[in-house]
Amino acid sequence: MKTLYFRFALTTIFIMFLSGLIAFLLSNVYYQIKLKPYNDRKITQMASNIASFYETHPTVNLDHYLKGISHLGFQMLLIKEDKQKVYYGKPFSQHNLTQSTINQVLRGETYHGIVQFPKQAFVTGFFDDELRNTIGVPIDANGKNYALFIRPDIEYQFGEMRIFFAVLVALMIGLSVLLVFIGAYYIVKPIRVLSRATQKIAHGDYNIQLHVNRRDEIGQLAQHFTQMARSLERLEEMRQEFVSNVSHEIQSPLASIQGFSKTLQANDLPPEQHQHYLSIIEEESSRLSLLSKQLLTLASLDRDKGELDITSFDLADQMKQAVLMTEWGWREKELAIDMDLPSTIIQGDSKLLYQVWINLITNSIKFTEKGGMISLQIVNTSKKEVVVRIEDSGIGIPKQDLPYIFDRFYKVDKARKRNHPGSGLGLSIAKKIIELHFGSIEVISAEGKGTTFIIHLPYM
Ligand code: ADP
């Protein structure tokens, strides 16, 4: 497998070599344009000095003189009038001087072989010790004409410098490669840690500790990843709690249905008791049916986030309709219903909002003693939102329970449950629907005095 570590290291090394190559080509261009003419001028100056010294001191033995100079680090060719060639210093690698060039210098002209040396991408010409890569100067002494071709002996003059640069470059490359591998290891390490953490999460273990103290993108990634793991953990806890709540809610009606149907199988029951047990079975089955309906509603609200079927309708009409729907409940408990519902046209998902009013009104009926009062109000003062208040004079909600009543399956206390059966889902469904309409729901309650739900619904 090509690991990220190797990819990273190899890419960096490739980039290093590529940069080296490009740098060489560019510096070669610089040599050709700037340094080569300078080098040519410099060597021409040296050659002229050598020639003029001999010309002004004609008694000097030319052979000894040139030999001495060659020992200072020069390669030379002396051509005499009779075409005799004498070499000094290190031999030239190629003898490629044309006869016309030789004649030209013998005639008294200077030959600029260094600056004329052909330009090539990978050849600087600086190191090429060919005869044509020389400077040719005429020497005129004692009435004799000579041609002197000269170039520096690079190996002699720069020998140790070349070794120095070779060692420098080799060490630079070697150390860079080594450090790239070490650096890549530390850069890639946190990604490996993250990868192991994802595997842990995939196996259901959310307890991950990432010690990535970096402030760069990888540090941020690790931080976000830890947050994601925490949310997943919470989500998993919520899911487990939800499943256990659902099972519990299903279990108790099923157990009572099972128990009563067993009892009903005994033939010697008096008819009233028979009837009573049947009505309990019916009640429990409708509880189960309501529960499954509520669970389906919640599931679809969770799934189709924000997908509302928006229409325009009169909120007052809808709330009156909900009061009519629950008439049987409040009539039976002889509750007074007070309505202050001015006609208000709103935009929203009418089916879902109807569910909200039904849930809130049935709760008010359920938790209000016989002869109590329920008040419904639409307050329509702002142009931005409409406020709905649903108030009852019921048993109220203890202060410590108030923060939780919108949680799924939350019921105030077990003792109440017997008198007021319910799933604990009604308020969470109502809240979810209101939030999908970008509104809010709040509760004010005092134990023994009553409860008020206040809903803010913005006009869409
Ligand atoms: P349930 O199906 O149990 O009514 P809800 O989610 O509708 O579930 O309500 C959650 C809990 O909040 C109820 O069990 C009840 O204890 C409390 N509650 C809701 N509405 C009222 C109210 N109007 N008066 C008093 N308590 C209420």
CATH architecture of the largest domain: 2-Layer Sandwich
Roughly how many Å is the radius of gyration?
50 Å
Overall tally of structural domains: 3
Strand residues, percent: 15-25%
User: Tally the helices: what do you get?
Assistant: 12
Q: How confident overall, as mean pLDDT?
A: 89
Helix-strand string: HHEEHEHEEHHHEHHEEHEEHHEE
What small molecules are bound in this structure?
adenosine-5'-diphosphate
CATH overall fold name of the largest domain: Beta-Lactamase
* The CATH class of the largest domain: Alpha Beta
- What is the number of strand segments? 12
The chain-level structural class is alpha+beta
Helix content: 55-70%
Provide keyphrases for this structure.
Helix Hairpins; five-stranded mixed sheet; 12 helices; Beta-Lactamase; 460 residues; 3 domains; 12 strands; binds adenosine-5'-diphosphate; five-stranded antiparallel sheet
Q: What topology does this entry show?
A:
Layout: H1 4-56, H2 62-70, E1 74-79, E2 85-88, H3 99-106, E3 111-112, H4 113-116, E4 135-141, E5 144-152, H5 154-202, H6 217-264, H7 271-303, E6 311-314, H8 315-325, H9 327-332, E7 336-340, E8 345-348, H10 350-366, E9 373-379, E10 385-392, H11 414-419, H12 426-436, E11 440-446, E12 450-458
Helix pairs in contact: 1-5, 5-6, 6-7, 7-12, 8-10, 10-12
Residues 359, 363-364, 367, 392, 394-397, 405, 410-412, 416, 422-428, 451 line the site of adenosine-5'-diphosphate.
